[in-house]
Amino acid sequence: MTTETIKLAFVVNDVATEQDNYTTVRLARKAVARGHEVALVGLGDFIYDWEDGICAMATLSKIETFEDDTGYLAHLQAPERERTRIRLADWDILMLRSDPAEELTTRSWAPSSSLLFAQLASLGRTIVLNDPRHLTDAVNKTYFQGFPESVRPQTTITREPEEVKRFLDAHGGKGVIKPLQGSGGQGVFIIDKKSRQNLNQITEAVIRDGYAIVQEYLPAAKDGDLRMITLNGHPLRVDDTYACLHRFSQTEDHRSNVSAGGGVEMRAPDEAALTIAEIVGPKLIDDGMYLTGLDIAGNKMMELNVDTPGGISFMEDLSGVDFSGAIIDDLERKVRLQRQYGGSLTNRQLAVI
User: Fold this and answer.
1) Cystine design at 297: which of 4, 87, 225, 352 (Cβ 3.0–4.6 Å)?
2) d(Cα 271, Cα 290) in Å, to the nearest integer?
């Protein structure tokens, strides 16, 4: 089937802070290599125009085959590259790829504002992924509690230090405490007999900027976790290879997140992980969550990343499998469907169809 050129815009925190191992950079590089038009938009770059609707000051990519992500990112971040005003109604897809946790202290207004612009953009012909109306709820870890209890650890969410202690006492004195809003393993503490003496200070540090989420400790987590990518509510698989990483700690630090210095290796999901994906899939589909990352330890899902599910570049480099190409294939398919149905499909339907 002949592929028509599509116009694909990515929303990131800031083009200047993108890194060459980010999934967004890999997806953008693969898209321009196919001849697609690509733009990157920062959270603070949106414009509502009284005539043109939702616009943005965007960094436009030239269409070319770049040798690697490092060279491509250098092209995007070149000092001479100026931003260009674009009208989002002219673009086929807007992919929301910003991390709200990075904005908590300096630009707390930015994530919510960009979601409002994205919601308005989704009222037209532009396909916005993940669906921004449901993403407004899903960006907060309370969204996690909407999934069946069988797939998630027991949890309490509170700002009361005594409630934290009560939960830990009820779970053998061991648990995990972290900010309700956060990512990349930042501010995550394991509480056990050794660290219990510092519980007051840890709790105070976590609740200083909001709610704390306290979860039961999962013994399987000591061996790391699985990051499994889902697409359209199902595990992403190319031929016989799943987009699934085993992430593990390489130091005494318990965090296995790559951004926290953890190691990675490809690993096929076991039956427990595939069962979790099957259980959470219907809600992901119903909420228009096109691209997500499930973080799984044993038979429980520890977290769900709906903002910037990453790891694709690591998966491709380790396996040689073109997962990002499969995602671009799927985006091209969605644009064809949008054009064929003449706008009669809703954004949520297009997000997961």
Assistant:
1) 225
2) 23
Is 288:348 a contact under the CB 8 Å cutoff? yes
Q: Which CATH architecture has domain 154-217?
A: 2-Layer Sandwich (3.30)
Closest CA to 15 of 118, 97, 71: 97
pTM: 0.91
Phi, psi (rounded to 5 degrees) for 155:
-145, 150
> For residues 262 and 28, what is the distance between their CA atoms, to the nearest angstrom?
25
Question: DSSP assignment of 215-245, as one string?
Answer: EE--GGGGG-EEEEEEETTEE-EETTEESEE
CB atoms within 10 A of CB 11: 26
CATH fit for domain 7-138+324-352, picks 3.40.640.10, 3.40.50.1820, 3.40.50.300, 3.40.50.20: 3.40.50.20
Long-range contacts of 196-202 (CB under 8 A, 24+ apart): 196/168, 199/164, 199/165, 199/168, 200/161, 202/177
Quote the CA–CA distance of 335 and 339 in Å, as a whole number. Answer: 6
- Label residue 41 by pLDDT band (50, 70, 90): very high
CB 151 within 8 A of CB 279: yes
Count how many Cα atoms sit within 13 Å of the Cα of residue 58 in the half-sphere of its side chain.
22
60 in Cβ contact with 84 (< 8 Å):
yes
Domain ranges in the chain?
A: 7-138+324-352, 154-217
Phi, psi torsion values for 24, nearest 5 degrees: -60, -45
Q: Which residues pair with 71 in a beta bridge?
A: none
Beta-strand relationship, 212-216 and 175-179: antiparallel
Q: Is the pLDDT of residue 257 over 70?
A: no
205 vs 137, more confident: 205
Q: Please name the helix (run of DSSP H) or strand (run of DSSP E) that holds residue 271, with its range, or none.
A: helix 271-286
